[in-house]
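PROTEIN DESIGN WORKSHEET
SECTION A - STRUCTURE
LENGTH: 273
TOKENS:
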């Protein structure tokens, strides 16, 4: 679909594709966002949902995590900004052990962006206020400066003209793009996406994935839990397949989708492709 093309939403509103994002790729050697997961285990009561995960994400790398429901994908992602605490092991971001009780996790989270499958927008605020509020309160920018940044990020995702609407006046795809703009407004070093299209009607998915694709091309470090195999194949530098709380296989998209090594991955792909 060409830029400016439109997709009809369920309620009849037209959703335009976002324009090209003005994201600057950092110079080599200056990127932040390196993530190291070392020996991470996670129990919920007697159930062990993560069984000794070791994973490194390099700055500027786009890693897509795939696997069946209940494989531990979202739990692993939530551990990366300590929304969950590990039972054992550690998570290190840019040489800082964020799972240490001495770590100021709020300071760490100010450098991370996370987008969930549920948009989590404030219904009583305008779209502009939703994006600007954390910039003002957490980044301590003045209100006019926060709103200027918010408007720029909304323009990046093609929603500047919706700035003064309430979330309920937007389609689901537009609300998810607002959530992405809100995360980007914090100028993150690392973006975490947790099944961000799973709550959307199929006709709204493309607009959100297009925004994520342009963000990846700009050099952002991204970890994406997704069931969108086409997106993973097209955008990821590396695909990680999880099952039963463990990493079964990882490699380039061509390796994973064209040359799967494990029988479990072959079974999974036969079901989802």
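SECTION B - SEQUENCE
RESIDUE ASSIGNMENT:
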């Amino acid at each position: 679909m060409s830029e400016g093309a439109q997709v009809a939403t369920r309620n009849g509103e037209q959703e335009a594709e976002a324009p090209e994002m003005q994201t600057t790729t950092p110079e080599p050697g200056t990127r932040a966002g390196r993530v190291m997961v070392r020996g991470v285990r996670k129990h919920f009561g007697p159930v062990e949902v993560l069984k000794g995960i070791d994973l490194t994400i390099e700055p500027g790398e786009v890693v897509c995590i795939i696997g069946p429901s209940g494989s531990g994908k979202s739990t692993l992602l939530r551990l990366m900004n300590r929304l969950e605490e590990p039972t054992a092991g550690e998570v290190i971001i840019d040489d800082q052990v964020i799972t240490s009780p001495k770590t100021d996790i709020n300071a760490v989270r100010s450098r991370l962006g996370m987008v969930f499958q549920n948009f989590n927008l404030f219904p009583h605020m305008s779209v502009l206020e939703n994006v600007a509020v954390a910039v003002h309160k957490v980044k301590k920018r003045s209100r006019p400066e926060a709103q200027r940044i918010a408007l720029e990020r909304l323009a990046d995702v093609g929603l500047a003209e919706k700035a003064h609407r309430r979330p309920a006046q937007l389609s689901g795809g537009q609300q998810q793009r607002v959530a992405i703009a809100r995360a980007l407004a914090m100028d993150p070093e690392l973006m975490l996406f947790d099944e961000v299209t799973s709550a959307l009607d199929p006709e709204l998915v493309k607009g959100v994935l297009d925004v994520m694709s342009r963000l990846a091309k700009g050099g952002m470090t991204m970890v994406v839990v997704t069931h969108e195999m086409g997106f993973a194949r097209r955008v990821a530098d590396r695909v990680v397949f999880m099952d039963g709380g463990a990493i079964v296989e990882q490699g380039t998209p061509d390796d994973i989708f064209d040359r799967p090594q494990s029988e479990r991955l072959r079974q999974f792909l036969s079901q989802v492709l």
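SECTION C - NOTES
DSSP finds nine helices and twelve strands in the chain.
The mean pLDDT is 89.
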